[in-house]
């Protein structure tokens, strides 16, 4: 019979690379032109604004990860803080968002693949499916192997991006850096909401916390370190793209006159001509595959953690005896990934995932407040988030503010995910758990009742 223990095989560097790998895909290779169309040159500021809104959630999650270094990440923290109903919504929703983001990465690489490979659009889908199978197999065969390959890929991609930025400094058209904004502050905020998903990967390593060596030190360092590196890299790369590429190509170079889906390649031609386009396109394909790998690695841990808490069927918590990975959870994630690539217009649905990511990041801040105020005895983090509670309140309110800029359809989509997740809890999980979370401890204390212990951060 398969065991239930995961192997702590990830050191600081591969852990940080997993986080960066989850951020280094569409945020650099696809979204800059879409953001540029909304805010002009001020899209650079939009990336900084999005990072500021993400930072409180990253700090909150870093603290909770050191108190609960187990698989589950977002689900685990919200469940233990606000109870299993909110935990189920967060777990299903975060899993949903990450799988869609991984699908978006694999399908999105098709636009770059067509720039150097003689393939039809239909063939690109089959390539994406083949890469998805490879990513799933890699995740089943071992977290350590997946993490090591991730580290190598991300290191090479970062080196390529730095070379792109440095060379752009010699040939960029400085006249393209004015005017700074074309749509006022509203355009910047809308663009920030749109590119917010670029940073979503920063906290996803918390979902593999059970497989990280010395999590009390490595998790906060990996989260905050990767976010600092990626914020600088985003600003530098987006600035280079704007200086290299024709503004009209960025705004209308995509399918049917939409924003370009290959902004880095649009500017690469100014560096090395056709050869530069091929080099950047190859790097983009590798990076987007890496992003999908990080997404599957992280998202597959949500069903595992929810199964352990009896909110999903027990088969999903099976650990492969040979590879020490959550085989069934990875397979479920892989099947959904393949179906999305084959049948769903992922780029549009990625907007829905982005809206839910903003909502989840806002709730994460509330979860930390619940833990701090409840003073749960088993909550003993090794890292303490600074600026409490003002940082968390800012993160919560700023996240809701960005959510209002997403448009009606993404907001309705997020509402649909919430309703579906609540239904899963009511039909399956409610009768199997009696946890109330840290917020339950707060309510009992106010009523003068004795704490019954079911708000503990320990698993049932």
From TrEMBL:
Keywords, ordered alphabetically: Cell membrane, Membrane, Transmembrane, Transmembrane helix
UniProt subcellular location: Cell membrane
Position of the signal peptide: none
GO MF, one annotated term: transmembrane transporter activity
Bilayer-spanning residue ranges: 12-34, 40-60, 81-100, 112-140, 152-172, 184-202, 223-245, 270-297, 329-347, 353-371, 383-403, 409-428
Record's bilayer topology term: Multi-pass membrane protein
Name used for this protein in its record: Amino acid transport protein
Pfam families, alphabetized: AA_permease_2 (PF13520)
Domain of life: Archaea
GO cellular component, one term: plasma membrane
